[in-house]
Amino acid sequence: MAGPLKHRWSISHNYLAGITAGAWWQLLRENNFAVSPAYWHRAAFISVLSLANTLYARREAKRHGPAIAATPIQHPPVFILGHWRSGTTHLHNLLAQDPQFAFPNTYQVVNPATFLTTEAVNARRFAWLVPKRRLMDNMALSFASPQEEEFAPALLSLRSLYLGMSFPRAMPRYARYLTFDDATPEERAAWKEALVFFLRKLTLHHGQRPLLLKSPSHTAKVRLLLELFPDARFVHIHRHPYEVYQSQHKFYDTVLWHTYLQRPDRSRVADEILARYRTLFAAFFRDRPLIPPGRFHELGFNELERDPVGAVERTYAALGIHNFMTARPRLEAYVATLRDYEKNRFAPLDPATRSRVDEVAAPCFERWGYPR
Q: SS3 of 140, please?
């Protein structure tokens, strides 16, 4: 476990900045208050923010609580699925150009208890906490960027795999919240209730538009999502397993250093990435047949990269989404802004690592025909 602690003094780029005091205390208690001394300053920063978040959350509940409870989600959401680092963010950003959709942004997902009250002011006041570009791949980032909503139920229910990014010693415990297969009925109910609450708030904020949602972890929760939204649409994006593995390593070596509250054991990173890959796709392949016909579409990252406008058009056709031609000008204008984007470049995997990835990802190689 020895080694330098990168970005030790950073307090920015931390999703726990939006937690309330009660939830923060519960999270600390569940982890036996085991914050490493190297990160005490980070925990103190979160503690101070949690007090302010609690005051705003009470104000928001008083002001908007009845309206939130009375807000229906009339349109089935569109869920973007895919393993982390498979192109889900790129696809999310493309589809978000269509104004018929509403989507959660970065500020909203990390401030799920307060964003109706605080976003207008705090998104400007604390913009410095968000880097201009994502740390792992240089994609543009701001509080207004489309963002994955799993952070919201993580903060509201404390039942999420993502909490292991802060408490890596407890990752084996939080890992059960990837699929919820081994979770209790109460834990599943808490996560589902938190997600629906957040989506009601988004609907109240944006009006009755279909919600465009993206969280890689949802790829392992198709069954739960269908229990909530039987008519939901799903689009799944996949990528060569070698590239996913390498890019996920980059994520671990960039973003996670800003979220740790415990000294990580970096010797386990490869095992953790591969175990999660296996678990996620086992659940996805098991539950994929539950999605009704006409509600699922699948595409490869290479297809999206080669022809983004065409890939989006084919997605609309496959899922029965209307008004593509209305959205096309905005989509093409956005694609034009990406011409100078530089992808990450990785050295080839060594033979031993390739062999491990080949074994874990065998069903994916077979299903999508990727070369080994």
A: strand
Average of per-residue pLDDT values in the chain: 94
Query: Which pLDDT does position 330 carry in this prediction?
Result: 95
- In 30-48, which positions are buried (b, 16+ CB within 10 angstroms) versus exposed (e)? ebeeebbeebeebbebbee
pLDDT digits (tens, 9 = 90+) for 227-262: 999 999 999 999 999 999 999 999 899 889 999 999
Count of domains for the chain = 1
Lowest mean pLDDT among 22-36, 122-136, 166-180, 246-260: 122-136
Tell me the two tokens of residue 340. 């100078």
The pLDDT of residue 12: 82
In a domain, 6, yes or no: no
2: in domain: no
Structure tokens at 87: 């192109």
| Residue 357 lies in domain | 15-368
**41 vs 46: CA distance, rounded Å:** 9
Among 45, 101, 104, 39, smallest CA distance to 331 is for: 101
The answer to whether residues 296 and 222 touch, using CB atoms and an 8 Å cutoff, is no
% of the chain with per-residue pLDDT over 70: 97
Residue pointed to by tokens 């465009």: 212
Percent helix / strand / coil, the chain, rounded to 5 = 60, 5, 35
Long-range contacts of 169-176 (CB under 8 A, 24+ apart): 169/31, 169/34, 169/262, 169/265, 170/30, 170/31, 171/272, 175/276, 175/279
Q: Is there a domain that residue 177 lies in?
A: yes
In this structure, how many other beta carbons lie within 10 angstroms of the beta carbon of residue 156?
A: 22
Domain annotation covers residue 294: yes
Domain at 72, CATH number: 3.40.50.300
Contact indicator for 201, 115 with CB cutoff of 8 Å? yes
Give the residue from 96, 123, 309 showing the smallest Cα distance to 210. 96
Task: List the alpha helices (DSSP H) in the chain.
Answer: 21-30, 40-70, 88-95, 106-110, 115-125, 151-157, 171-174, 185-206, 222-228, 241-252, 269-287, 301-306, 308-319, 324-336, 351-360, 362-368
